[in-house]
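To close the section, here is one more complete example, presented without commentary so you can practise reading it yourself. The ligand is magnesium ion.
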Amino acid sequence: MRAAGRVVAEMHESIRAAIRPGVSTLALDRIGRDVIERRGATSNFLGYHGFPAVICASPNDVIVHGIPDDTVLVDGDIISIDCGAVVEGWHGDAAFTAGVGEISEEAARLLVVTEKSLYAGIAAMVEGNRIGDIGAAVQDVAESAGFTIVEEYVGHGIGRAMHESPEVPNYGIPGKGGKLHRGMTLAIEPMVNAGSAETFLNEDGWTVVTADRALSAHFEHTIVIGDNGPEILTRP
Ligand code: MG
Ligand code: MG
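Output:
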């Protein structure tokens, strides 16, 4: 899983470096494909229930699962990139949201808070804690900043498949839910909205948007509970 995580981290780095006004989300997908090919990995996104790309590209009010197309990013956009890779049957999965050019103060704050909520969740991923401790930590950071947590889409176990049990909601009650143990590998992935938490699925059957069209951000890492606590496998 470390090898898969490194490929995902390299995809993130290459794609992040290409994000600028004028680039299309399809061009970003091409960059992801190139990294996967170069590393001899395979994509766990391409063909997933028929998904047509190796990344999800979700601009502005798109929460998750946006399909790359010839949409061109413009100054002031935010763009969420979610992607994964498989190496020798082991999966990695991670996401980040970046600003395009100059973004508003509120958009910048949404990105900072959402990433911070991910790291709060990761810090709670220690042996003896429970799934609810992760969700509660994420939720506390996001909601105390005045943002809302998407509840319909959640983090997950990951290993020989991209999505394994348990589900890892981005909300929860401390001390509740399944116990965390050493060696466990989870993908924690807060989706945080600037407006209401309500979601809407577009006609394409994939693209999930905020019902009120407010901005949404998404950060994710694949993490293992190692001997010295949580270890991020998809960090660039
Ligand atoms: Mg995931
Ligand atoms: Mg993901």
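Once you have examined the tokens, check your reading against these statements. Residues 2-232 form a domain with the Creatine Amidinohydrolase fold (CATH 3.90.230.10). The helical segments are 2-18, 25-38, 105-123, 131-144.
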